[in-house]
Amino acid sequence: MASEERSENTVSSTIVNLAEEAQDFREGVKAPSPAFLSICKSLVAGGVAGGVSRTAVAPLERLKILLQVQNPHSIKYSGTVQGLKYIWRTEGFTGLFKGNGTNCARIVPNSAVKFFSYEEASKGILWLYRRQTGNEDAKLTPVLRLGAGACAGIIAMSATYPMDMVRGRLTVQAVDGVVRQLMTEFFSLYFYLQTDKSPTQYRGIFHALKTVFVEEGPRALYKGWLPSVIGVIPYVGLNFAVYESLKDWLIRSKPFGLNEDSELSVTTKLACGAAAGTVGQTVAYPLDVIRRRMQMVGWKDAASVVTGDGKSKAPLEYTGMIDAFRKTVRNEGFGALYKGLIPNSVKVVPSIAIAFVSYEVVKDILGVEMRISD
């Protein structure tokens, strides 16, 4: 009798297993795990945040780079308002967005990797901190957030640096002349507009990458990487540290009646992001100037662009980051390290703020649990 019951149970179990296998076969591949979906959604949120924030300030981003590399003996861009008017007058509305296609092609994956890396680095650092202190309720301190942000910045910068390098050249080229032709090599809505007086016709991001690789070698794609990495440590680190610390302080202290229900408004989050971006970019800005100038080294027509209509047409030569600092300060003064700071400051206020808020809004829409404040 017992053997018959066991036999019946075995048959029933087999039938159930076969039914489950048949259902799996009909449904095809099993649904992705929740963890995988969460990672994908975080990457999407970060990419959207980067694309939206950068497009919103694309004219100021281009003007900043042009101010950084223009010839001190032939000033074309003397300020933010004048520079934007000059670009509008000589190149039209589309000239304000020149380089934004490549910029977004770089910033979307950069932002996605940066936000995701920050979350993962924060979790890892917090785990180590709790293990070291023996306090399972410990929270991230501003210093720990700074470290997590620095790790995220280094990872994101290194992963997308070649795109940033050619973006600098594409944005700088074709600043003279009025005749323009729309180039449609890349997928972005905004493409690079070239003029018939352009010193070198980089026809788009892929052509620029190929040209630099063939003419200057693969190492050229990472020119200026060292000052970029050094600069990204305080820049991204301070961005995340200041933003998250300000939010935590506002939630805990509840000043000015800003958050009665422990939920900050979008306006308050924008203000936190603006403050974070201002602090970070002010500290790291000189390294950004040196990075741009080092990226021009090896480009045979760089002298025509950087020196403009000035007297010197000598090739740009820097032996390294320190040499670039020394020659820039010696030839143009200490103030040259902050060329373009004003339009960059105006750009950073909305850009960083929009990026942080967009990231959180998109994650909320996608139903991803916020973890960067843990």
Automatic annotation (TrEMBL):
Solcar repeat locations: 37-124, 140-249, 264-365
Highest taxon of the lineage: Eukaryota
A Pfam family this chain is assigned to: Mito_carr
GO process terms (BP): transmembrane transport
Location(s) in or outside the cell: Membrane
Family recorded in the similarity comment: Belongs to the mitochondrial carrier (TC 2.A.29) family.
Keywords per UniProt: Membrane, Repeat, Transmembrane, Transport
Membrane topology: Multi-pass membrane protein
Keyword Transmembrane: yes
Protein name, per record: Mitochondrial adenine nucleotide transporter ADNT1
GO CC term, one of those recorded: membrane
